[in-house]
Structures are given as C-alpha cells and as structure tokens.
Amino acid sequence: MKNTIKLFGIIVMLLTGITLIACEKEPVEISISVSPSNAEVGLGKTAVFKASIKEGSKIISQDVTWSVLNNNNRGTSINSKGVLTVAANENNSTLAVQAVAKIDKRLIGTASVDIAVPVITINKQPAATTSVIVGNISGSLSVSASAQGATLSYQWYSNTTASNTGGTVINGATGSSYTIPTTLTAGTHYYFVEIRVAGGAISVRSNVATVRVLPPPLPVEMVRINPGTFTMGNPTNEADRNSSETQHQVTISKSFYMGKYEVTQEQYRVVTGVNPSNFSSNPAAGEIQGRRPVERVTWYDAVEFCNKLSEKESLTPVYTITGRTPTSGYPITSATVTVNWSASGYRLPTEAEWEYACRAGTTTAYNTGNTISYNTGWYSSNNNSGRTHEVGLKPPNAWGLYDMHGNVWEWCWDWYVSYAIGAQTDPTGAASGSYRVRRGGSWLSVGQDLRSEYRGSYGPYGRGNDLGFRLLRP
Length: 474
Known about the structure:
The chain is built from four helices and 31 strands. It is mostly beta strands. Strands 11, 14, 15, 17, 18 and 19 form a six-stranded mixed sheet that branches. Strands 1, 3, 4, 6 and 7 form a five-stranded antiparallel sheet that branches. A hairpin with a 2-residue loop joins strand 3 (46-55) and strand 4.
C-alpha cells in the first residue's frame, strides 16, 4: 500500500514538473506583413504577404495556408507563397488576407492591402431633353467621362421609363456618343449610357436622356382674305374710345391668308420643341389641351416661329433675325429683326391687316355689333375659370376667323406709335419704337379691350399668360 502511494506521488510530481517547464517557455509571437506596404496595388498587379512565427528569438518554421477573406469571385487570388494577384476587374478598394498555420491550424493573423480601383467621373452628362420631328430626325447624345490611369468603355441603353436602372442594351452603341435613330416613332424615348473601366467591374451610369419625337407640324388652317378698303379706328363718339384710335382710311391692295385660329400649343411645340404656356394642363371640361392657344411667347419668339414653320414647308422666311439673345433656346428677349415683304413664308399681320380681317366688313365696335356678348369671345365676364380655352369654340366672324375677340392677345408686326395722318395703302407702321402692337384682348380683359379697333402695346421682350399670336401668309 505504501509503495502504491509513493508511486502516485512521484507521478504527480512529474506531471507538476512538466507543467512548470511549459509555463517557463518563452511566449510565441505571430505577425503578418505585406509588400509593398502603405501603397495601393493596381488592378492586375501583385502584392506579397509574409507570415512570421517566433518563440522568443527562435523562428518557428511552419507551412501557412493563405486565403482572401473578402473574395468576390472576380478572379483575385493568393498562392501558397503569399503572392496576391489582383484581378483586372476587381471592385473592392481594400482586400483582407488571412494566414493559418497548416500543422495545428492556428490562426496566425490577417492583413489588408489597398487596391487602386479607378474612380470614374462624368464630366458632362447627356442633354436632359432633345426634341426632334418625325421625318426630320437628326442629332446625337453624348457623354464625357474620365478615370485616372484607366481606359473607359461605353454601352448605351434604351429604356421605357425615365430611369437609368434596367434598360435594354443597344447593340453596337459602344462609344461616348450615340446617334439618335432616324426610325423613331412619335413619342417619348429614354436613353442612358453605362461607363466602365475597360475590362473591369467598376462602372457608373449617366443621367437619363429624354428624346421627344414630335409628329410632323399640324397644318395651319388659313382663310383667304380679299383686298379692300375700310375705315381703321373709330368715330369720336364711340363709347370707350381711346385717343390713339383716330379714324383714317386704309386700303389693303393684295389678298392674303389669315390663320383661321390662333396658333395652338400643339402647333408651337411641334415646330419649336417647347411649350412655354402657363396653361399647359388642366383644360376646361371637354376641351383638348393641345388646341388651347400658345401664350407666354415674346414678340421675338413669334417671329422666329414664323421663320421655322416657313422653313419646314419649304417657303422663303420673311424675317432675318440677328443678334439673338440668348443665342439658342427660349424666350428670346432681344434681337434685330428685318422683314422681306415679298417673301412667301409666314409672318405676323400688320396692325392694319389684323383690324381689316377682324372687322370682316363691319363698322361697329365688335364684329358682332356695337355691344359685346358672351358669344363675341372669351373675356373676363364669361371666363370664371380664369384660363384660356380651346380655339374655335366661339362663333367665327363673317370671314370665318375664330377668336379675333378675346382668348389671348395677338402680336402684330407694328411698333406702337400714333397713326399716320390721312389715307394709307398697305401701311406697315413706324420704323422704330419701344413697344409692339397687340390686338384683340384676352380671357383676362374687360369687354372694351376686345373692340375691333382697340390698340394694345407690350414690350417685344415681354411675355404674358394672355398673349399669343396668329399667322398670315401672302
């Protein structure tokens, strides 16, 4: 029994001794390093990781298993010697690498390396909106982008909504610009471009570019007005008369064609690509929005519309416009305009032509009589909704012209000055002035301003939600 106890005591001591020896061993130090250090590694380049295991001053040699912790399956890999090869399409800006000792599967540690992932900058987005016309589609969308130290590739997409997500790849559209297809149908089309580091995964998408394809210009219905002589202005005893309305005889020596209606929003948009109107939505019940008169156009906008429509119909433009401000876009607030009265294109009526056509052979204050009625035109007393109305809803005058009284004022060619004394033939007004003539009154006007002879004026740079225009052709 004693021998047994003695043996047990020896075993305990031996075990105790072993434990004490283990505790006296020097601590193990583990570390991991990477070269190059404190630098970015480019796409397609390499970095070398090393593991160090020390017990005191003694280096312990062990095989190490290497792995990339945040591998995203783009081809970045690390071999058994710790050489990390960064994939050309890597899109992680930082990669973490882990080392594990093979023998005891002890984690040695982790380290990371920064990847020089190029940053793509879009310097110029595609135009937000481009308007073209069926049968005359031209132009392109373009983008400008850069990424330091990288080559960029491009892919254009079409979409059914104003979004740069999803979309349909446009085959062959792989440049920084994209030509608008000439086969587009009328409607709204959306495009964007994806810009990518060539061969890589880093990409950005541009803003959406909207291409509005407008139908061909709607025909402008015209009414032939035969030549004749009339008394312009009004008698001194007429109610609500203004001093500027001095009566005088005017002869219109040549026939001309006058717009049956005021220029509509639909017509203006098709020709210019824009609709500046304040009343661009919410028409009165049963009315067609596009057939409301265009308004908020300057006198310069109106004469440029005449030229654009003339060009579309292969007519000779009447006006020469120089010094346009701004050089493009609307509204035009300043320009020098000269006129060629013998040209075949569209133009604004002179003040005399306008009054002659409005009167349609009448001599009364309105072409419906000496007093205004709700059927004369749209004006403040019969327009409780406070807005313009679709053209042509009130009865025409005797010559078939609609809305010569009310709805919107109409620009004329003339400068607003006092009438010349005596009889006139085909007068075109003064050579200069500060304000242009507007005629006819509007939905906002009191009744007296709708009189056939009433003369309104406005700065040619001005716009109003009650001011539009009507066309004339020789």
